[in-house]
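hiii, so i know i said id send this last week but things got crazy w the move. better late than never?? heres the sequnce for the chain we talked about at the cafe, plus the structure i predicted for it. fair warning i was half asleep when i ran it
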Amino acid sequence: MRERDYIDAVVAEWDEQRVGKPIGGVALMLRIIRIGGILERELATLCARYNLKPGQFQALAALRRVYPRTLTPSELNHGTLLTSGAMTPLIDRLEEKGLVRRLADPDDRRGVRVELTRAGQKLIDEALEARIERLTELVAQLGEGEVVKSSTALRKIMLLLEGPMESSTQS
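okay and structure toks below
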């Protein structure tokens, strides 16, 4: 018999309560939600070690992915999944810490671009290394076929929820 996880127990309990209306088909989504919550808690713990909040980590990581390019606050917002109202204070805090700087946008007199500083690059490189190591450790428990099948299935779900990417911060 296979090992049971928390979601197996939840599905069994709901199936008992909702006789004739089994929810076993949503177990995949319940696992995604639970895994996401666990990984978010792990990220918060990691961020605390680097004196960051998870949104700040996400913003620095988005800037690091395109380094040495800069991003507008809107582009940065898209890369972090934060609300647009949270972006200005987030950039303010990162700038106060010396991790980013705002630059005038040469293409828009009213606009700004956000640049990763050397201190920001050093910090996010260290934090990312720890995060990637942990995620790699988890994925290493799966076979190559499992990784490919899981990634393909999850991509389909993401496309249903978000739609295809129109453009990326990598352009």
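btw The mean pLDDT is 91. thought thatd interest u
miss u guys!!
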